[in-house]
Amino acid sequence: MKRMTNYLAAASALVLAAGAQAQDIAIKGEQVHTMAGPVIENGVVVIDDGKIVAVGPAASTAIPAGFEVLEAKVVTPGLVDARSVVGLAGYLNQPHDQDQLDESAPVQPHLRAIDAYNPQEPLVEWLRGFGVTTVHTGHGPGALVSGQTMIAKTIGNTADAAAIVERAMVAANLGPMALTERGKSPGTRAKQMAMLRQALISAKQGDAAKPAGGRSNDDKSNADKPPTLETQVMRDVLAGKLPLLVTANRAQDIMSALRLKQEFGIDLVLDGASEAYLLTDEIKAAGVKVILHPPMTRQYGEFENASFTTGEAMRAAGIPFAYQSSYEGYVPKTRVVLFEAAIAAANGLSWNDALASVTIDAARIIGVGDRVGSLEIGKDGDVALFDGDPFEYTSHAVGVVIDGKVVSTASQ
Amino acid sequence: MLQGLAAISTTALALAGGPLAAQDRTIAFTGARILTMAGETIDNATLVIRDGRIVAVGSNVTIPADAERRTMEGSVIMPGIVDTHSHIGQVAGADSSSPIQPEIRALDSIDPLSSNIAKARAGGVTTANVMPGSGHLMSGQTYYMKLRDGKTVEDIAFEWKDGSALGGMKMANGTNPMGGNGFPGTRAKSASLVRENFVAAKAYCDGDRKKRDLAKDALCEVLSGDRLVHFHTHRADDIMTVLRLKREFGFDVLIQHGSETWKVADELARAGIPVSNITLDSPGGKLEATGMKMDNAGILERAGVLVSIHSDDPIVDSRMMLREAALAVRGGMSREGALKALTINGAKQMRLDARVGSLEPGKDADFIILDGDPLSAYSHVMETWVEGEKLFDRSRPEDLLMATGGYGAGSPMEASHHHWEIAEAEAGQ
After folding, report:
1. What is the mean pLDDT of chain A?
2. Is 90 exceeded by the pLDDT of residue B163?
3. Looking at the complex, does the CB of residue B373 fall below 8 Å from at least one CB of chain A?
């Protein structure tokens, strides 16, 4: 926690120095990538009261008197990590800081991310230091339905303060990671689908007697009982209020997810999708968005056919996609979307599409494209500053601004 | 899997089917930027190879009349990467019967056809120290692999003399070897078990050795300095324990990982102990790695420690080693130092520098050709040559599959490796 303490001390100093005008800031860049139009050479982003009020060439964009001015070679929107578990999963990797997965039951859609998110987690600070300002985080893969996700800014003393969407999606997982052992269910892929379908059908019917976990209730009292928490959440999924985020990597698991969407008309978002390049026609036809595994995901097990080039395959097929940091069980404890997009940019995806996959495209896929992901008037003042091409390994993030507040000026 | 194997076989056939095996021809690569790792970078330079060796390198090189010429303008040529810590080839080591098993040989477990060897070549790796895991105080003899095109472990051994392959000894301290039946419960117990074994081995080594003891035979090679100890260690106090053991028993040692070597860089420099370092995308994942820093390698470099950068594949994919060196530069290491940490420094640490690690006449023709700055995210390894043979060529579809991944690039049970066992054990705590 020493790092965190140091950070807080530094942040306080900045806030104090900037005084009452902490949220009035202008950021000048030799290149400003707004992600809402062509790159602006020698541009400036003006943020007033946490929101962007002007973006344009420095020559024609006035910076109001008294505004703090930051400068960098390259300025981008604050990065958006489309799928993570940080804040629930901590860097110590000890039982007390691993809250991304409860294995007591295979289907627990009612577990809320906000009840477990730790905004003080050093991994959150780590991601922020590389320019990540928004993270879609929550329950991880490893159970058929592990719980909900949330969307948070990477700053804030409490989960409530950090959250911008408290309930974002419901996380589900088809394939080997969510199989259970020793005679428990689900023990096969077919059983996973049977259980997930039953959970949705039960919710649809208001059948409290057969909730998702297979638990049996007293039939006689059903009529008087309010729907269970599980049922309420699954009804939100059925109603399209909450997308079902299905982690599926093998082609057959991806097809199973598409079959679910067809049967129940749910809003499906694919997660991982390491073999998605085999199914571009099917995914495109289903109108499904994809949050791709990090390109540097280790290529073994259900990722043995993963490729650094899948992002370009999605782009070529016209499938909306984003890159994510994902879940890591060992070392490194989290990946960083800045690094992952760089691998995609080096393997066929255009520079601009790679940056979009961790800014505006990511923001749109997780449903906050109206608020973050690009530098446009009216959007949140979330900005990342770099001393060179952000994707070059030897460049550094040199500043991070969230809601108009300078939250880091360290070189990382 | 079948597709992956088929791709590899096709490559082998293509190479064997040529009119004259590549390594027998004289080939001159001209007009390249050459990073020899033995001096200054030379622009518009020529590299001449023959019979698997380097004949000449420099800007004023006489090209033999019969040489096949390849114009390499815009390309960068550097030595093949020497990975000082890898687990490619689906290597395994000691079993769970006891914490100290020096008689175990990594070579008896390696699958030379594993696609992760071809992937490592796609990343520019030509020499690798392939090791058993870190779940034991001593998990066995490591295996120095030359990433030739081979079907047997003999084919890809760095050297194979008297039935024994070149390699070191894997040791570990800290939390990985602790806990469980018959394994140490504390750090002091760990050190004590190691000391007891070395003391017993010393008596054996000084005796007539008539009744052979495979474990002690291996320890004799460690005590004589013939077998380098590769010591997995993270925390600063554990690193200092390694130095204490070295002082007592006199073995040669290379610190492996050394996450907190930045805390004791001066002590390491004074003791002349080299470090094989890893850089990861984030700290943590285990308690001992919470002190991991991206600027570690740079701190060691400035302290005067001989430092290499390793993959620990699959922890860092072998194809990401140039990236790892670039991250070390991001953390403050010099560009030249980072590239040496991938090549000549590791060769020196493993005592293989007479053969590999730099581009100098007489050395093995192990080199890679890149399409740009080796430390740039946008550069690619275009070709990897091992002993004068082009074994990776990005323009061949079956090789590109190894470089980028994709359908059929894997091997069953890939990365069936101690790290996952440890991760699972920790997750189950």
Report:
1. 92
2. no
3. no
